[in-house]
Design brief:
globular; single chain
């Protein structure tokens, strides 16, 4: 068991490196810089946490939760990046998504602050509870993105061969497994190490999926014209330019009246 706890993180680091290499080769690192950075931060976290766990066990708690906080924040940014890239052809939906993500980020900060405020105990405990709550909220949002893509895949003419869809599918699946593992560890504390191993194996499977899909030929991105719901989507995107045009005409009319 102890040997597997060393081997599995090393396998994950190797596979993350392979995915990053494929992204550089396919020039996807420029399209998804936050996801590329997320993989790099995961590698860095493993490279720091393994030595700390074996040689500075007293500092492991602080290093682990500091790394978890950074990865949680970057994970939220990756969720935003994937959502915006997938829906890029639908400008009105993207504008709405940006606004919603801004409010979601504000809600997470508020929830973390209030949770830390009402939690009794030392400052370290307050921070851990707040970070854990935010992490679960981000995981739920990632699961929500996965459900959104599955439900609207045909209506918005998405293709699972698209790199953005591939990344979002992996992120959503990993978030769902993380939530199940977290519940299982809370419910069955005696099986905590087995659940950790299950989580690592599932992440290795997701990394293999990413490597396979990013290496394959990518399909063309979705467009409004190609969507079965193009009439509805065109209604969403049309009001903005029409409103701007109406404002210009109104301003011109007002100027003529004053003259």
């Amino acid at each position: 068991m102890a040997l597997l706890q060393i081997i599995l993180p090393l396998i994950i680091v190797g596979m993350e490196s392979a995915v990053m290499f494929l992204m550089i080769k396919r020039k996807l690192s420029a399209t998804y810089p936050l996801f590329f950075g997320f993989l790099g931060l995961n590698i860095l976290a493993v490279a720091i946490l393994l030595p700390v766990f074996y040689y500075a066990r007293g500092q492991y708690f602080y290093v682990y939760w500091a790394a978890s906080t950074v990865l949680m924040l970057v994970g939220f940014a990756v969720l935003y990046e994937g959502f915006v890239n997938i829906l890029k052809p639908f400008s009105a939906v993207v504008d709405l998504a940006k606004m919603l993500f801004g409010w979601a980020a504000l809600f997470l900060l508020l929830a973390a602050f209030l949770t830390a405020l009402v939690t009794s105990g030392p400052h370290a405990t307050k921070i851990v509870v707040a970070v854990d709550l935010c992490d679960r909220c981000v995981h739920l949002m990632q699961c929500g993105l996965l459900m959104l893509l599955v439900l609207f895949e045909k209506r918005l003419n998405f293709s699972w061969r698209n790199s953005g869809m591939c990344i979002a599918l992996g992120i959503g699946a990993n978030a769902a497994i993380d939530l199940v593992v977290s519940y299982g560890q809370g419910r069955f504390p005696a099986l905590m190490s087995q659940f950790d191993m299950l989580n690592s194996l599932s992440f290795i499977g997701i990394l293999a999926f990413w490597a396979f899909r990013l290496k394959a030929t990518e399909s063309a991105p979705a467009t409004v014209a190609g969507s079965p719901s193009r009439v509805i989507l065109q209604r969403w995107t049309r009001p903005v330019p029409e409103l701007l045009c109406w404002k210009r005409l109104t301003a011109g009319g007002g100027g003529a009246t004053r003259l």
